[in-house]
């Protein structure tokens, strides 16, 4: 590749980060603006609680089904077409959702919008590398961080906007950020040849980190209010909502800040990854101890714990995600690696909260122990495997 072409690629990559992160924000916002509107949507459609919760959880199922196909698509076609597909799917899905007058039509719009997630997030390793982004840890942290920031912002303002306004605000934000991203992404389409190279989908040990962090984060958010009610907290609903928002905000800050810090540390970031994993383990134990009554619940104490758990957990998640991409043999294979990481994460989201979450109320001590051991397994993988290679560490 000539110096001129390489320079142009780097410039396009640098310009891509802004719209890529902005669109991730609108995707997160559009999804979790529904969270505080669950009672409103139940009354509006006459649907049971499980049916409305399904609308929110659909993105996880889309990630399980679409992560690897999206990874292969990017590896063969380059990042441009995949990003345009994500923009179009989101616009169509969110618009149908905003216009829906029945649950079935709302569900159809939500399914279409959910399919954008794997095209935008799953192959992030290839999208960044093929687009010429040099600071891949920073880029990964920025995109994941803004996604969570959008989720937090949507959850915080959704109740104030109301159902109709919230759904249309999501569409408008999508049009602005999506148009910005699509305009630049189209310039990536001719670079199909950059996708060629060795393609292999080898299971990377860091996928365990994705499985552990994603599943336990969702589980804590899902059971927090119920666990506090079980502990006879008089303001369980308020505290539970605050904990979810604080976890999202912490996740956004942790991904963005430590992606940037990890980039500056370069190879030494593996040590940082281990420190973050250990911190996440500590905060997981303390958070679980609060929710099971082992530690007396105080508003300030549990709020700070969930914030720090979000920061350390998603910072750890982000560095492990980038680590799995670095082990790939080519830019295209990097997309498959991060797609596999996303697949493992969302399989965890689909299984762990459902199977393990009820124990928080029925057998609190068992739940605390099993949850702690599960996160400790992820920490062990971080300590006993080499970053970027997947080989067992010998030192």
List key phrases describing it.
395 residues, mainly alpha, 16 helices, 80% helix, globular, disordered N terminus, disordered C terminus
Helix and strand pattern: HHHHHHHHHHHHHHHH
* Shape category: globular
The secondary structure category is mainly alpha
Low-pLDDT parts are 1-7, 192-196, 389-395
Secondary structure: number of strands: 0
Number of H- or I-type helical stretches: 16
How would you describe this protein?
- The protein is built from 16 helices and no strands.
- The longest helix is centred in the first third of the chain and has 30 residues, at 3-32.
- The two termini are 38 Å apart.
- The chain has 395 residues and is mostly helical.
Blueprint of the fold:
Elements: H1 3-32, H2 38-45, H3 49-77, H4 79-99, H5 103-114, H6 116-120, H7 124-130, H8 136-161, H9 163-185, H10 207-230, H11 236-265, H12 269-291, H13 299-326, H14 331-356, H15 359-362, H16 364-384
In short:
By secondary structure, this protein is mostly helical. The protein is 80% helix and 0% strand. The protein is built from 16 helices and no strands.
